[in-house]
Amino acid sequence: MTAATGVGSWPGDDARDYGEAVRVVLGEVPELPHLPELPARGPGATMVGRALAMIGDLSFDLQPAGWRLTDRPGIDHRRARSLLLQDLDALEERAQHLEGVFKIQVAGPWTLAAAVERPRGDKILADHGARRELAQALAEGVADHLHDVRGRVGAARIVVQVDEPSLPSVLAGAVPTASGFGRHRVVHPPEASDALEWVLGAAGVEPWVHSCALSVPWQLVRGAGARGLSADLAMLDADDIDVFAEALDAGETVVLGVVPSTEPAHPPTATGLTEQVLRWLDMTGLDPEAVSERLVLTPACGLAGASPAWARRALALCHEAATNLSG
Predict the structure, then answer these.
(1) Angstrom distance (rounded) from CA 221 to CA 208
(2) Closest by Cα among 245, 248, 272, 244 to 258
(3) Whole-angstrom Cα distance, residue 257 to residue 301?
């Protein structure tokens, strides 16, 4: 059957909000719940801070310009690790009897390299050796995090979603330098693929890659080992559709973002969303009945900017449309 899940982020800024987020996710998308992320709680809870919390072999601290690689863990890095463990405790309390599939998320190596600074300034992206070291440390951190989650929930299968919103900018040489007057050099596809492959290889048997950006190199992503492609349906162009169709035809998972991340003036209906996905499948030339089990529906992107009511409704709409597609 077609499943529904969330991309990752969720509204809320304290521990009570986190417990409620876990409860809502488990209730609204029971076929594929995910570990919520509440970035409004501070830098340690953002996509970048949460990924750095998983890395044990490198140290980081928070500077006015953002996260920076350091010789020893700063207080903010330690807080990020503590917050992640607290979230896993909250998950374990509510989901230890979970069966089926569960999803966790982590920022990818190129998004981290474009966001985190070297000790002497400017992004890790500027240093070939540093970005290689970061990607390898992230791969080890993802493996450790996956092992920890497996010990806390009873899910038969855990999907790891690697978030790479900055990958297109990295490949295009469009990431600004610290001064803002220049751009970092282009990272060539073979190196980009290698770093992704290390992280995806550590992510278990079914790693996904998610991006809400334009011009994502989905063929490169598949070649690096992704077995699930996740994007906002409205952002896919004709070439993307071909790659997504190839993935479905090869037995891989395709994750389509179909519900707005914030409440629109005219909210969609589950029936309308179902028809939208069926039209997209018609464009691919694939039989909906043949691929429905490999389809997953999500909101268009994260829900951190939504109201709690819309976040819940967005997941419910995804679930209803997925049920319709399952026939």
Answers:
(1) 9
(2) 272
(3) 7
Pull the structure tokens for residue 42.
């501070």
Residues ≥6 apart with Cβ < 8 Å to 262: 305, 306, 310
pLDDT at 180 over 90: no
Q: How confident is the model at residue 93 (pLDDT cuts 50, 70, 90)?
A: very high
Tens of pLDDT, residues 122-169: 999 999 999 999 999 999 999 999 999 999 998 999 999 999 999 999
Q: How far is the first Cα of the chain from the last one, in angstroms, to the nearest whole number?
A: 8
What is the gyration radius of the CA atoms in the chain, in angstroms? 19
Residue 33 DSSP code: -
Query: What's phi and psi for 62, nearest 5 deg?
Result: -100, 125
CB 303 within 8 A of CB 6: yes
Q: Residue 289 has which token pair?
A: 């009945």
Strands 207-210 and 157-163, how do they pair? parallel
Q: Which residues pair with 107 in a beta bridge?
A: 163
Q: Residue 74: enclosing H or E segment and its boundaries?
A: none
Residue 67: CB partners within 8 Å, gap ≥ 6?
43, 48, 49, 52, 60, 61, 115, 116, 117
- Amino acid, single-letter form, for residue 259: V
Helix, strand, coil percentages, rounded to 5, for the chain: 50, 15, 35
Q: What is the mean pLDDT of the chain?
A: 96
Residue 45 pLDDT level (bands cut at 50, 70, 90): very high
- 3-state secondary structure at position 230: strand
Q: How many Å apart are CA 258 and CA 314, to the nearest integer?
A: 9
Taking the C-alpha atoms of residue 185 and residue 26, their distance in angstroms, rounded to an integer, is: 43
Count of other CB atoms within 10 angstroms of residue 26: 17
DSSP one-letter code for 118: P
User: Which helix H or strand E contains 262, and what residues bound it?
Assistant: none
